[in-house]
Design brief:
Length: 189
């Protein structure tokens, strides 16, 4: 689909009262995201959930993504098989900070992201006051879990074992699925 059609797509989303948009395997680019964001603003689109699936978007596109989140009021962002890296997540983090994004849920599905990306995830949780981090099929390892714990410590997020949850000082309860509860319990007591 050409870039300018993404602006028109936002009009269709608004007219159909669609609450969830997923960009899947569509060669998402900065221009396409900008056009969709412009369409969201022009049509007063209100999204609950935005999914980015199987897209090899360039790193600077991840910061532009925050414009779409802000303009659409989106509260849930899910990355599914997006070849996420620390640099791409840093773009999301920068965008969340600039746009003052408030997310309820951040999902990372089926990603074999390296360990250093997991600390940035916690930074995004903190910046966006996120309530839930969903990790599914992420090839989690002890080292990756340690990255989450280190990130929580760096961001002054209290970590305790409580029904596989991470609990912050602001009574924020980001649930982390696929967490090894025994590992968390041994590292936080």
């Amino acid at each position: 689909m050409p870039s300018d059609a993404y602006s028109e797509l936002a009009a269709v989303v608004q007219a159909s009262k669609c609450a969830f948009v997923s960009f899947g395997n569509c060669d998402l680019s900065n221009l396409k995201l900008e056009c969709f964001g412009k369409g969201c603003k022009e049509n007063q689109v209100s999204l609950q959930k935005l999914g980015i699936r199987e897209n090899s978007m360039k790193e600077d596109g991840y910061e532009i993504l925050s414009d779409v989140l802000k303009l659409s009021g989106c509260k849930e962002l899910v990355f599914d098989r997006c070849c996420l890296t620390k640099t791409k997540l840093q773009g999301v983090s920068n965008g969340c900070q600039i746009q003052n994004i408030q997310l309820q849920t951040l999902g990372i599905v089926d990603n074999s992201m390296k360990e250093d990306g997991y600390e940035i995830l916690v930074h995004i949780l903190k910046l966006s006051d996120c309530k839930e981090l969903l990790l599914a099929d992420c090839c989690l390892t002890k080292t990756k879990l340690q990255g989450v714990l280190n990130g929580c410590r760096d961001q002054n997020i209290q970590v305790r074992h409580h029904e596989q949850s991470v609990i912050s000082e602001k009574t924020c309860h980001p649930k982390i699925r696929n967490f090894s509860s025994s590992y968390l319990a041994s590292k936080t007591t």
